[in-house]
Structures are given as C-alpha cells and as structure tokens.
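Chain A, query sequence.
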Amino acid sequence: MQPKLIIHGGAGSSLSGKGGLKTVRESLHSIIKTVYELLLNGASATDAVIQGCQLLEDEPRFNAGTGSVLQSDGQIRMSAALMDGASQRFSGVINVSRLQNPIKLAQTLQDQSDRVLSDVGAADLARELQLPIYNPITELRLNEWLQERQENFQKNMANVIAEAAGRGTIGVVALDRQGYLAAGTSTGGKGFERIGRVSDSAMPAGNYATAHAAVSCTGIGEDIIDECLAARIVVRVTDGLSLPAAMQRSFQESRTNNRDLGAIAIDATGTIAWGKTSEVLLAAYHDGTAIGDTLEWQGIDLAGSL
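Chain A, predicted structure.
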C-alpha cells in the first residue's frame, strides 16, 4: 500500500508574517520528508509516528519537548501518547519533567500491562530506562514566564498556538505499506496552568487509532476533552461514515459548541483529512505523490481532505 503521512505543530489564531510562514513551512516539510522516507523503506506506522514526534519535540518552536511552555510555578511538565491502530493499544505519560522526548516513554509503555503513567511513575520509568536528565527549557519560554510573573499571571494560557513563531502541540498520523495506522501526540500544556492540570494529549480524546482511522488533535485541551474529538471521529468512521464526512460533522458540532481546536487524520483507505475551528492549523502531509500543507488554509471550511 502507498504510505501516507500527516503531522501538525498546533492550531490557533494567526500565522502572521512571511518570515514566520517560511520558517514553519521549512521545518514541517523537512520532518515530513525524513519520516516519509522511513515509511517508503518499510518502517511501521508506529515507528514512523515515534520518529516524527521526536523530531517535532526537538524543534524548539513547537510546544512539546524542547521549547515546552512553563507552568505557573516555573516548571515544565509534558504529556504524550501513542496509539497503535493494528493492536488498538494506547499508551501515554502525563506531566513528565526533565526528559527530552516524552514520546519515548509512551513507546516503552506499549508493551506494559500498565500503559498510562503520571508524573511520579513516569519519572521512575525514565530512571529504570537510564534516560539522561534533560532540561527542555528555552530562553524564549523562560522570558515569557518571567514577563507573565511580573503581570501576576493574568493570561489564561501562554502564547503557544500558532502565532508568528508558530508554536503549538505536535502530532503525527501515519499509514504504512502494510495498511496499518498509528497516531502520536505530545505537548507541553497550556502554559501558566494550575499545577496538576492534565491535557487531552495523553487521552483518547486527543489521540486515537484503530484499524479504521487514526487521529491526533491540537488546540485547547479542555475543548478537545469535552468533544472527545479523536475517538468521536474514529468511531464515526468505524460506523460507516467516510473520514471527510466524520471530520466535517465533528467540527460542525465543535463550532456550534464554541470549541477552539484542530485535528489531523488518515483512514485505512489512505484518505488524509484535517479540520479546525481555529483560524490556523499548522499541518503538513505527504499524499504519496508530493508534500503539501495547510499553513495558508484560512477559509470558512471546517475540514479538508485528500
């Protein structure tokens, strides 16, 4: 089967300036090219998703791994999830710290009996795996937090969703040569949030895959949880809707409910789809022929597909 791939780096209100657009496009397209080569060479969908998430986590402009936002106490706590569509197995970590690639812990948990760990358990697992201690903070994020501290943290969230610098939660969805699907999602959170807050990224609401379809979400985590967006889309495809129809219906409902979110998806036939209620979705894809993206997609349509 011809492999398919789509990735995202967040969704939000604007992507102003050609410099920002050009930089984000180059970053996303480079990652798409690298990961798609793996799929062409026979890598599984799950392995491709893991590699893609690692590359996105290592890109400081996105709010995952290196460059994650700081919470209200000045600490970084990250969450990530992986779901293998063939086995329909979900794994994830919640609010982990001092780690370069949270998706690696989610990968390790795929074969465990306990597959979702919170901060303490995830830290213990990282020590068992002898993963090196890593500081994901960047100067930009530190200065952002220091400025907000001076203003007594009046913002509801950090400037993390698709502003000029193109920052946001990351996700990868892949279909491999064997026709298997997988999805992965990773985030640094909203920024300035209450300690202990849990995002959608390590829930089936934000990351879900079966043999029928795979979805990764981005945007405001609470909105995604309220819609149970990723699982809702996949269930609709399983029940007989086409992926584009499932996306369109789900995003119409989200818009009616005043949600701020986006999603990327692939189904078992190789259809690639995306949707948003926000102004901008930072996504790029490979449709088997060429690389494309959604960076300049700012029309009134709530969903698009190939």
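The first strand starts at residue 4 and ends at 12. Helices lie at 18-40, 45-57, 102-109, 119-128, 139-150, 221-227, 229-238, 243-256.
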